[in-house]
């Protein structure tokens, strides 16, 4: 089949112009139909890719790449966790190209953590298309670095991820590459997902290697547990032939074990400098709360006779850091996180009332307020204005902060987080979580633990751009568990067994949440 020069797009002999018609042979018609119906055959027979060692070569698909393609075909929502250098992006490029040329009027988006990355993916798709014989091509209308449109009306656009990169575009297929590396992934995802979910046949593909325990980790974990509708696809390094024991040993020697486990072992870790060891953080699993609104997250209702601790961290209420009330059930070991209040707009003046109401609801919980800066005012207001007495009172002795009975001078209502008390709190928190003595149930808490790392002042804090307000309530709790007062008062508690044997829970009245001056609900 010969095509005249004036039928090429911009004079490129590898690209047929849109609108050009050619007469096909019976064999070509047969091949076209076969390629349309069988993407694996299409990829193996006609697609070419650029390889590092041999340049442009025919695409030799591996078994796991065929598995990926088949999963893409069978499911609307796919999430792919793949080891480095397994060809996950190349496989997805093939799927996108086939989808575009064998379907009319499809709008396809390629979004990556950087614009250059998405352009590179589109460049690979363009190379595949140029390698196709003209009888498989549907003609070109637009052919530039970020935008390709074919004669059948299908269009492929590439862009960097941002909160508005998908807004306004009715995508039939959206591919999010290396999603674990996307900045502000939650904001981007919340604005992008409605674009896909609004259709009945539109498809979403998310792929990545592990990079900490952010949104990609959450979506992947929920998919493997059946808690969302994503189809999980996993590809391990050993599925790639040539990655044998000698290769593994050499790679570990050159890049280190931790990086190997992340880049090739598909293991999720927080920062290597997090307070809680990475593999322990990976095992933390959030659960669905009983009640959830803008400020309250309730995992367990108060149980009569149980002992609770309410740990409070105070912010200025100007939309930046959060004021947090974190409630733990300490009736027996392991201790359990049961409820959380989190609000970055409430003023400190109003917070003391919320603390009072929340702590009273949980059986007059023992309350500990961090008093650095404005927290001292909240603690004093709680004690004097609301006459809440079951709170930690401290005194400084020899540079250390200790719990006081209150019958001495220089007492402080709450806990001033000094370098010493923070060090004790962090050390004990590490022991509590890593030994499963404290059970964490909350998603935001786990997220903060993933980025609570050593800083340049040889202390622990949130990584840049992250929050640690919930974690700091846990640090206060860690400090409290080290105090003799706590050990004497709660370690030999028999009330939990009495409650259990007498079935008191059966007679508990319904719980009302809560008299919060910033939220109106029953």
Short description:
This protein is an alpha/beta fold and about 525 residues long. It is about 35% helix and about 20% strand.
Summarize the structure in words.
It is a single chain. A hairpin with a 3-residue loop joins strand 7 and strand 8. It contains 17 helices and 24 strands. The protein is an alpha/beta fold and 522 residues long. The longest helix is centred in the first third of the chain and has 17 residues. The chain has 2 domains: 264 residues, P-loop containing nucleotide triphosphate hydrolases (Rossmann fold, 3-Layer(aba) Sandwich), CATH 3.40.50.300; 165 residues, Nucleotidyltransferase, domain 5 (2-Layer Sandwich), CATH 3.30.420.240. The C terminus is likely disordered. The strands form 6 sheets. The protein has an 8-stranded mixed beta sheet, sandwiched between helices. Strands 13, 14, 15, 16, 17, 18 and 22 form a 7-stranded mixed beta sheet that branches. A 3-stranded antiparallel beta sheet has the order 20-19-21. Helix 1 packs across helix 2.
Which key phrases capture this entry?
eight-stranded mixed beta sheet; Rossmann fold; 2 domains; seven-stranded mixed beta sheet; single chain; 522 residues; disordered C terminus; elongated; Nucleotidyltransferase, domain 5; alpha/beta
């Amino acid at each position: 089949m010969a095509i005249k020069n004036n039928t090429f797009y911009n004079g490129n002999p590898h690209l047929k112009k849109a609108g050009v018609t050619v007469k096909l042979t019976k064999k070509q018609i047969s091949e076209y139909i076969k390629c349309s119906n069988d993407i694996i055959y299409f990829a193996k027979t006609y697609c070419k890719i650029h390889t590092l060692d041999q340049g442009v070569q025919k695409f030799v698909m591996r078994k796991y790449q065929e598995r990926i393609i088949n999963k893409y075909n069978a499911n609307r929502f796919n999430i792919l966790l793949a080891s480095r250098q397994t060809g996950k992006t190349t496989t997805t490029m093939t799927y996108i190209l086939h989808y575009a040329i064998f379907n009319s009027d499809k709008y396809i988006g390629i979004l990556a953590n950087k614009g250059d990355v998405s352009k590179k993916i589109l460049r690979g798709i363009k190379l595949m298309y140029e390698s196709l014989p003209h009888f498989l091509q549907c003609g070109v209308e637009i052919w530039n670095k970020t935008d390709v449109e074919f004669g059948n009306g299908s269009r492929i656009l590439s862009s960097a991820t941002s909160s508005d990169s998908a807004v306004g575009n009715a995508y039939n297929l959206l591919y999010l590459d290396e999603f674990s590396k996307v900045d502000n992934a939650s904001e981007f995802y919340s604005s992008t997902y409605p674009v896909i979910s609004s259709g009945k046949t539109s498809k979403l593909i998310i792929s990545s290697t592990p990079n900490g325990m952010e949104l990609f980790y959450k979506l992947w974990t929920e998919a493997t547990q059946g808690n969302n509708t994503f189809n999980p696809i996993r590809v391990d390094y050993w599925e790639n032939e040539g990655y044998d024991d000698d290769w593994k040993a050499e790679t570990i020697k050159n890049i280190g074990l931790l990086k190997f486990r992340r880049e090739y072992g598909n293991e999720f870790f927080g920062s290597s400098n997090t307070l809680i060891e990475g593999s322990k953080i990976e095992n933390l699993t959030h659960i669905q709360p009983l009640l959830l609104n803008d400020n309250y997250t309730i995992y367990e209702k108060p149980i009569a006779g149980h002992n609770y601790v309410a740990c409070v961290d105070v912010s200025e209420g100007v939309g930046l850091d959060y004021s947090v009330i974190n409630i733990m059930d300490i009736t027996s070991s392991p201790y359990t996180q049961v409820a959380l209040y989190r609000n970055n707009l409430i003023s400190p003046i109003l917070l003391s009332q919320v603390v009072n109401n929340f702590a009273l609801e949980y059986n007059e919980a023992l309350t500990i307020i961090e008093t650095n800066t404005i927290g001292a005012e909240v603690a004093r207001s709680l004690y004097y204005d609301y006459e809440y007495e079951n709170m930690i009172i401290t005194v400084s002795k020899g540079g250390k902060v200790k719990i006081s009975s209150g019958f001495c001078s220089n007492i402080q209502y709450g806990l001033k987080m000094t370098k010493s008390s923070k060090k004790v709190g962090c050390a004990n928190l590490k022991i509590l979580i890593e030994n499963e003595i404290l059970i964490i149930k909350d998603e935001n808490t786990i997220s903060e633990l993933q980025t609570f790392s050593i800083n340049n002042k040889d202390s622990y804090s949130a990584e840049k751009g992250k929050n640690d307000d919930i974690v700091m309530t846990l640090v206060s709790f860690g400090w409290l568990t080290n105090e003799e007062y706590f050990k004497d008062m709660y370690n030999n508690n028999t009330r939990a067994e009495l409650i259990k044997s007498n079935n008191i829970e059966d007679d508990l009245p319904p719980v009302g949440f809560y008299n919060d001056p910033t939220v109106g609900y029953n």
